[in-house]
Design goal:
The chain is mainly β. The protein contains one helix and 16 strands. The protein has two domains: 162 residues, Porin (Beta Barrel), CATH 2.40.160; 140 residues, Porin (Beta Barrel), CATH 2.40.160. This is Outer membrane beta-barrel protein. Keywords: Signal.
């Protein structure tokens, strides 16, 4: 994940650029070698750093082709035709994609699936239409992902996006970044990354502290439930790259180690160490009250990866 985090740092450092862009996507996916079709969806945050160059972070879900459930996070560098003015603009991007793939092993006995992780290059082209006197835009994007020795995919996505012009991106709602500390109680649903996608009720308690204008640090106690697949709890610590979209709303991406006190049943090696990769948004309801929603991916080496969807309320002090 180091390459993705370096891209996030560079993205956060681009404070002088005039616009931030948040885009949601949905579309179709083609598995090239297997000649299969599936759906695809994603969300991206992009930041132009000059008239013709930009950076982006993308979460992409590659659907459910036969025997594969793959998604991942990408950091990309973009070349653009020009500033985002009313009418059409075009861009091409390239970068690295860290993927998580739940794969059917077709074994008669023992493990039935595996959670495969790895890096792959991602290449993208996009066409964007900006409306007159509006910050809304529509976008068409094509992505090509080619993991070494694995199925390559091509996705065609249609997107709707919004520009947050004129926002520096630092913690604008604060008198100073060191004053942002919060305790947040959250609950939600966990989904085991298996071919059956078992679910469980989960809880978490998060301590968050701003350690810079664009960087947060969190310590989170997590209980992933009590089923055979989800019986795991522990403490995660993460560094977050944070960007404010306006004085009340901020988005971010975090990553760090997850130390498990209890681990679920699983075939083969079981480890008390895992990784946690997160994407989240916070909304400052009042000076002391903040709402938070996060998607978290638990990354393991014993085939018990999980998605943790959490929402909660926090007290800021």
């Amino acid at each position: 994940m180091q390459r993705i985090l370096l891209g996030a740092v560079a993205l956060a450092a681009a404070a002088a650029a005039p616009a931030q862009e948040l885009t949601g996507y949905a579309g179709a996916l083609r598995v090239n070698e297997a000649h299969e079709n599936s759906f695809s969806a994603g969300v991206s945050y992009a930041h132009p750093v000059s008239e013709h160059f930009g950076l982006s972070l993308l979460y992409l879900n590659e659907g459910h082709p036969i025997d594969h459930h793959r998604d991942g996070v990408a950091g990309q560098v973009w070349v653009r035709t020009g500033p985002n003015q009313p009418g059409w603009s075009f861009a091409a991007g390239a970068g690295q994609y860290y993927y998580f793939d739940t794969t059917n092993l077709h074994n008669g006995t023992g493990a039935k699936y595996t959670n495969d992780h790895g890096w792959a290059p991602i290449y993208s082209v996009q066409a964007t239409y900006h409306y007159q006197d509006s910050r809304w835009y529509n976008q068409v994007q094509i992505n090509r992902i080619s993991p070494s020795g694995k199925d390559a995919t091509t996705s065609l996505l249609l997107g709707v996006g919004y520009q947050f012009n004129g926002v520096k991106g630092d913690k604008l709602h604060l008198d100073g970044p060191t004053t942002d500390e919060a305790i947040t109680l959250m609950a939600g649903q966990g989904i085991t990354n298996s071919l059956s996608s078992e679910t469980s009720v989960i809880e978490a308690l998060e301590y968050r502290r701003a350690v810079g204008r664009y960087v947060d640090w969190t310590v989170t106690a997590i209980n992933e439930g009590n089923t055979a697949q989800s019986k795991r709890n522990g403490v995660a610590t993460q560094l977050w790259m944070i960007r404010s979209l306006n004085p009340k709303v901020e988005i971010g991406m975090g990553a760090g180690p997850y130390f498990n006190v209890k681990v679920p049943d699983g075939e083969g090696q079981r480890s008390h160490k895992a990784g946690l990769v997160s994407i989240g948004a916070r909304y400052h309801l009042a000076k002391r009250i903040v709402a938070e929603a996060t998607w978290n991916r638990v990354v393991t080496d014993y085939h018990r990866d999980a998605d943790l969807f959490l929402i909660g309320l926090g007290y800021s002090f």
